[in-house]
From TrEMBL:
It holds the Pfam family TetR_N. Residues 12-72 form the HTH tetR-type domain. Keywords: DNA-binding, Transcription, Transcription regulation. Residues 35-54 bind DNA. GO terms for molecular function: DNA-binding transcription factor activity; transcription cis-regulatory region binding. PANTHER family: HTH-TYPE TRANSCRIPTIONAL REGULATOR BETI, HTH-TYPE TRANSCRIPTIONAL REGULATOR RUTR. This is TetR family transcriptional regulator. InterPro entries: Homeodomain-like_sf, HTH-type_TetR-like_transc_reg, HTH_TetR, Tet_transcr_reg_TetR-rel_C_sf, TetR_CgmR_C.
Length: 204
């Protein structure tokens, strides 16, 4: 039995392979250069087989966004499940997920693709909505300025890893991560981050 025939009975496997190939091609050729024909050819399926999963290029790009967010969500959920400290739990999980070296495996295509996708207004809105949704879910335990700074720093570390790759000094990186994690559990150690009371006599 041919591999192609065998894969017809595994739509989930085929869909995942199509997304992986699309991610690799998008990084190589850019989003504008990505074509359905090229993705189908790289995945070894017919164009009709691809259209069964993704009826248009827009649908494919949308699925790529969703797949990246799914992978990120999965990492965050795993980290939160293993974290016994409630305060700052989401911020730490987000930091750990974004700082994971697994994203840089191979050619780091999903990490690179995320930057490409979320540079586009439509997909950037999708990212914004995802972040806002998670903050609403975890607002009670992640409301301090310190946790906001940690999340912003995690985004910066993500970009730094993309630019510097393995040249990002391991010891320095480890120290930064440890300090950021500490910020989420010891907000009182960072008085400059606490809201300041209005000066005496100050009128709004």
């Amino acid at each position: 039995m041919s591999e192609a025939h065998h894969r017809k009975k595994q739509p989930v496997v085929v869909r995942r392979q199509l997304l992986d190939e699309a991610a690799a091609l998008a990084v190589e050729q850019g989003l504008t250069g990505l074509t359905l024909e090229a993705v189908a050819r790289a995945a070894g399926v017919s164009k009709g087989g691809l259209l069964h999963h993704f009826p248009s290029k827009h649908a494919l790009l949308e699925a790529l966004c969703d797949e990246f967010l799914r992978r990120l969500e999965e990492r965050i959920a795993q980290a939160m499940a293993q974290d016994e400290i409630e305060t700052g739990r989401f911020a730490r999980a987000y930091l750990d997920a974004m700082a994971s070296r697994d994203w840089m495996a191979g050619n780091g295509q999903w990490a690179v693709l995320s930057v490409m996708l979320f540079s586009e207004p439509e997909w950037r809105r999708r990212w914004h909505d995802w972040v806002e949704g998670r903050l609403r879910q975890n607002g009670d335990i992640d409301a301090s300025p310190a946790t906001w700074i940690v999340r912003l720093a995690a985004d910066g570390l993500w970009l730094s890893d993309l630019v510097e790759g393995r040249q990002n000094q391991p010891q320095r990186r480890k120290a930064v991560l440890e300090e950021l994690r500490a910020m989420t559990t010891r907000p009182k150690d960072y008085p400059c981050l606490e809201p300041k009371a209005p000066a005496e006599g100050f009128q709004h």
